[in-house]
Amino acid sequence: MPTIRVRTAAVALAACAAVVIAGAPPASPAPRTAAPKNGFARVLATARPAVHHEPAVRRAATAQLRAKTGLELVPCEDPAFLCGTVPVPLNRRKPDGRMVPLHVEVLPHTGPAAAPAGAVFITLGGPGASISLFDKYPYVDMLAKVSETRDLVLVDQRGVGLSTAIDCPAWQHGGPFYPSAAQCHDQLGDTANFYSTIDVADDLEQVRRTLGYSDIDLLGASYAANDMVTYATRRPANVRSITIGAPALTVGTDPFYAYPPKGFPALVDAVCGGTPACSAANPDPASSLAWLADRLRRRPVSGTGVDSHGVPHQITVTENLLATAIMFFNGGSFVGPGEITQAAVALQHGDAVPLLRLAADVDPANGFDAGDPREFSNGHWLARLCTDQPVQWDKNAGPAARLGQYAAAFAAEPAQYGPISKGAWDHEGYLGYQPLPCIASRWEDRPSYPSIARVRGVPGLVVSGQYDAGLPDEAIRIASRMIPGSALVELAGAGHQVWFYGSCGAELVQRFITTLKVGDTSCAATPPAGWWMPGSFPLTAAAAPPARQIGGPSAPADVRRLATATAWTVLDGLQHQASISGLVAGGLRGGTITYVPDAEAPFVYDNARFTRDVGVSGATTWTADGIDGAFTVSAPTGATMTARLTGPFTKLGSQLTLTLGQSSFAIPGY
Hints:
Elements: H1 2-5, H2 10-14, H3 39-44, H4 55-69, E1 74-75, E2 82-89, E3 99-107, E4 118-122, H5 137-142, E5 150-155, H6 169-172, H7 177-188, H8 197-211, E6 216-221, H9 224-234, E7 239-245, H10 259-273, H11 276-281, H12 285-298, E8 301-306, E9 312-317, H13 319-324, H14 335-348, H15 353-361, H16 378-388, H17 399-412, E10 416-417, E11 420-421, H18 422-425, E12 460-465, H19 473-482, E13 487-491, H20 504-515, E14 548-551, H21 557-577, E15 584-586, E16 592-595, E17 603-608, E18 615-623, E19 626-634, E20 640-647, E21 655-660, E22 663-668
Parallel strand pairs: 4-5, 4-6, 6-7, 7-12, 12-13
Antiparallel strand pairs: 1-2, 2-3, 3-5, 8-9, 10-11, 14-22, 15-16, 16-17, 17-18, 18-19, 19-20, 20-21, 21-22
C-alpha cells in the first residue's frame, strides 16, 4: 500500500491537513481556532465558522435521530455534532464475548426537512487515523451542500481514536522495526487478528442498523476506500452510492507494491513540466531522475545538508532514501518530485547542496514517532495491514519458512522498477517496509474480499490525483475495476489528499452524491494552483538564467541574471517556509526566512541566499492575492540595491514583477 511506503508521514497522509485554495496558501482546517502548522496555512488562517443549525431544525433532527435509534446521542465537544457509542463484538465469531465501544459522531442535516434524505458514512485512512480527533472539518466543508439534506456519520474504526485506540508504545514511537512490531503483536495477543477491514466493514453495518438508516452513501479516501469497497462487496443492497478518493486497496495488489517507482518518471515529468522555469531548463526530467538513481546506487552522496528549518544534518543520500522518502516529500507543494530534477542537474555540476537539503528534510535520524496513538494508531496500522495485506509468505508458517519464502520471492523480482533498483525499493525497515513488519509474527490471512468480487449495481465515483506519488495510474486502475461502471476522474495537479486540492473535487463529489451522476468533469483538467519550482539551482548569479526585462533602462545580462537570483531567493524562501512547522526557515545557501505573525509583512528575510553571492534581506506579504515585498540585495559586485517583488504567486499563468534599481523584470509566479 502507498501508506506503507510513507508511514513517516502517515498522519499527514491519512487525514487531510489543508484545503488548498487555488493560487494561495491553504488555510488550516483543524482545530478550528488553532495556530496553523506551516507557512502555507499561516497566510490564510482564520477561525472556521461553526456549522449552522437553526435551533428548531437542530432540535427536530436530534429528536428524530434519538427516536429511531434509541442510542444515547449527546452533544460532542463541538456541539454541532452528536456523539454516541455503538458496542460491537471484538470477535464476531464469538459475538457474546468482549465488546469494543465504537465511537460515532453524527452531524444532523442542516436543512429544514424534519428527516434526512439519507446519510453519508465516512472513515479516515492510514489505516489508523481518527476522524473524531484528527480532522473531520475538511469533510464537513467539502460536503456542505450534501449535508443540507443528509446526515454525516463519522466513525472511528475499532482500535482507532475514541474506539479504544491501540497503543503499542515501542511501535508507536519508532522503536526497532521488526522487534517492536513483534512486541505489538504479542501485546495484542489473541485479539491481534480482529482488526481486519472485514471487521471494520461489519462494524459499519452495525452502525447503520443502530442509527436506523436504510441505504447509505459511502465516502472514503486512501485506506478508508478499502473500508467502503469492502462494505459494498458484502452489502451492496444497503449502498446508495460509493465515492472513493486516492483509493489504497489491498486485494489484487503487488505484494512488493512496485507501482510508485514505476510511476516516478511520469511524476517528475508532470511536476516539472507544470512550471515554466523548470520546464524551460529541463526538457527531460525523467532522464535526470534515472541518472540520479544510478549515481546514488553506485556512489551515495554524503555531506552536511541544511534542512528547511536551517538545521544542519550529517547525512548520506542513498538510492533508498531517494525512492522511499525524497520522492514522497510534499512540503505543501510537491517539493520532493518538484526539485529532484534540478538537484540532479546541480549534482552533475558538482553541487550537492540542493540534494542534501531535500535529504535533510526527510532525514531518518529525525525518527519515526507517530505521536499520540489516539490521533494515529500505529498498532491499528499493524494489525489491519498484517491481516489484510497480500504478502510473499504463508502468514501462518514458522519464522524460518516465512523468511525463506520472502527471500525466494525477492530473488524472482526484476532488477529494477522503472529507474529504481529493487534493492532500493524493497528495503527492510522504516525506509522500504520490505519485508513488511508482519513477517516478525504469525498472523491470520483475512483478505478484505474475494479476488473475484466486484461492487456491482452501485453508482461509483473514483477520484485520483495526478501528482499522487503513492498511487500512480496502475494502482488506481485496480480500484476502478472493482466498481464496474464507475466514473474515474483524475484531478490535474492534485496529490494524495485529492478532494481537498481546490474546489473541483468537492464539486464533483457533492454533485455525484446528490444526483448519482458525475456530470461535467472539465474542471478536473485545470490544476488548482500553479506550483512554483525553480528552473535550476545556480551556484552564483552568473549561472542564473537572465530575467525578461519589461521596463526601465535597458539592463545588461549580469543585472538580468541578478534579477532572477533575487526573485528565486524570495520564492524559494516562501516555498520552504511553507514546509516547516516552526517559525524560522533557512535559505538554500544561508540566511533565514522568519514568519512574524503580527507583522504587516510577516515573512522576514535576513541575508537569505539562494546563490552563494547574492544576499536578500527585507520582508513580504503572502496572501490569496499574491505577494508584495521590499528588499535590499547584496550583489556579487559588493553593491547594495533595492528590490520590490509583487504580483500573484502560485496561480496558473501568473507573472510577478521584480523591480531592481530602475529596471523591472517579469518573473513567472508558478
